[in-house]
């Protein structure tokens, strides 16, 4: 098999899994396009990289988030791209405010929002599932968590799309560059106002918690606070939208599964875990080698960029039996969709809760979801696995 697979080719975007299976078998650590980055596809190799942040750094990737035309991007100062010891300090401070209680307190709001969205969806019957439920629920969750004005929720997707596009914008595309610059300034201005408001009127919310958090007497700086709020939007929105969208696609294509979940709602938890494993919304993350090293028998020079294909690792037969099949009720833990080690997703409990709340609101009220007869169109993205749209007809219960 040719080693230079292109992760952005239409063939790969439409269905990456057979190609990834081939890489796992024949070339588990190899250079791919675009850019000749090193693709890591086996579960064991991905895990060993994530367990060793000294040798495989997250910090080296700041440049791709903050190209010279942008100059400044708070996301490039967030804990996602920090290495120890800086990462540990930031994460400890943020974890003081972003706790299981913060997430649990959100549940009643999420349930009311999901019920309202399902009411509207049933009234219309023919909807784009993404616009009707998969996007507005996570947008409301993040907005509520940050204490943002509800009128802004519709702008979140636009904001997070612009942040996600930064590394792909060419040095000569001035128009797109200006759009992104405006978005970053708009977001920063708005989030600073939110921080200022909470300083003057502290409440029982995440932002007030972040302002109060102390580790050994030290607080988060203004720049760190803004960076974290940027990260919440970037890391928390698109991923969860795609978890809900991918779940709906699987249910639309497998009516017997939908029926089973309606009859046995206790299976919802394992259904969500299997969707995360089988169609991982976060397909990949990046690391940079800090020294020459060896991985999977391949020598990697210092400063090699690695793309860790989480979606591939989750289907690796060395780790999970019958990995290419959707199986309800698996025993293996499905944590890798949320990463591993020091950067393990801080929002995993929230993402799981949102999925559960959405499906618990939807399933008792529908008999089926039938897709329009068109092939699913997937986002041409290296990191995200999600549909561009999902037109469905809803059959009420
Ligand atoms: C299905 C939904 C989600 C998936 C699949 C997902 C996946 C991931 C992955 C793979 C990482 C690790 C990245 C790396 O090691 O480079 C990560 C980190 C992170 N995620 Fe999520 N995420 C999801 C939802 C959320 C939500 C809802 C939030 C917050 C509201 C969130 C906040 C974060 C944060 C703050 C980090 C950085 C943690 C650190 O650097 O220590 N995520 N996520």
Q: How many angstroms separate the termini?
A: 49 Å
Total individual domains: 1
Main sheet specs: 5 strands, mixed
Q: What is the count of β-strands? A: 10
Listing every helix as H and every strand as E from the N terminus to the C terminus, the arrangement reads: HHEEHEHHHEHHHHHHHHHEEEEHHEE
Mean pLDDT across residues = 93
Low-confidence stretches: none
Query: What topology, given as strand order, has the largest sheet?
Result: 1-2-8-5-3
User: What's the CATH class label?
Assistant: Mainly Alpha
The gross shape turns out to be globular
Report the CATH architecture.
Answer: Orthogonal Bundle
Bound molecules: protoporphyrin IX containing FE
Radius of gyration: 21 Å
Helical run tally? 17
Given helix and strand content, the structural type is alpha+beta
Helical content, roughly?
A: 40-55%
What percent strand? 5-15%
> How is the CATH topology named?
Cytochrome p450
CATH superfamily: Cytochrome P450
Write a structural description.
The chain is an alpha+beta fold and about 400 residues long. The chain is built from 17 helices and ten strands. The chain has one domain: Orthogonal Bundle (Cytochrome p450). Helix 9 packs across helix 10, helix 13 packs parallel to helix 17 and helix 15 crosses helix 17. The longest helix is centred in the middle third of the chain and has 27 residues. Bound molecules: protoporphyrin IX containing FE (HEM). Protoporphyrin IX containing FE binds next to helix 12, helix 13 and helix 17.
């Amino acid at each position: 098999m040719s080693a230079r697979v292109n992760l952005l080719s239409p063939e790969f975007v439409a269905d990456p899994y057979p190609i990834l299976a081939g890489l796992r078998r024949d070339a588990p650590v190899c250079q791919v396009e675009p850019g000749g980055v090193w693709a890591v596809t086996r579960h064991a190799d991905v895990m060993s990289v994530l367990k060793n942040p000294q040798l495989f750094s997250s910090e080296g990737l700041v440049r791709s988030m903050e190209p010279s035309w942008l100059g400044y991007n708070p996301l490039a100062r967030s804990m996602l791209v920090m290495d120890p010891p800086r990462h540990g300090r930031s994460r400890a401070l943020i974890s003081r405010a972003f706790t299981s209680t913060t997430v649990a307190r959100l549940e009643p709001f999420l349930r009311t929002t999901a019920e309202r969205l399902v009411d509207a969806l049933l009234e219309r019957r023919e909807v784009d599932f993404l616009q009707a439920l998969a996007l507005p629920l996570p947008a409301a969750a993040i907005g509520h968590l940050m204490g943002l004005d509800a009128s802004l929720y519709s702008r979140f997707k636009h904001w997070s799309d612009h942040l996600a596009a930064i590394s792909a914008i060419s040095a000569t595309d001035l128009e797109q560059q200006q759009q992104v610059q405006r978005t970053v300034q708009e977001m920063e201005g708005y989030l600073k106002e939110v921080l200022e408001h909470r300083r003057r009127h502290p409440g029982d919310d995440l932002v007030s918690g972040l302002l109060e958090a102390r580790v050994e007497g030290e607080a988060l700086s203004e720049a760190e606070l803004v960076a974290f709020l940027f990260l919440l939007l970037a890391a928390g929105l698109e991923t969860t939208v795609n978890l809900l969208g991918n779940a709906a696609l699987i249910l639309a294509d497998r009516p017997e599964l939908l029926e089973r979940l309606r009859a046995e709602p206790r299976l919802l938890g394992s259904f969500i875990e299997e969707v995360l494993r089988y169609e991982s919304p976060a397909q990949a993350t990046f690391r940079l080698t800090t020294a020459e090293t060896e991985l999977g028998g391949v020598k990697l020079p210092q400063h090699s960029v690695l793309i860790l294909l989480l979606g591939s690792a989750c289907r690796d037969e060395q780790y999970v039996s019958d990995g290419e099949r959707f199986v309800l009720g698996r025993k293996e833990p499905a944590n890798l969709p949320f990463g591993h080690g020091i950067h393990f997703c801080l929002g995993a409990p929230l993402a799981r809760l949102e999925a559960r709340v959405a499906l618990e609101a939807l399933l008792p009220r529908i008999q089926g979801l039938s897709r329009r007869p068109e092939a699913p169109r997937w986002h041409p993205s290296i990191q995200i696995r999600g549909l561009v749209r999902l037109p469905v007809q809803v059959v009420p219960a």
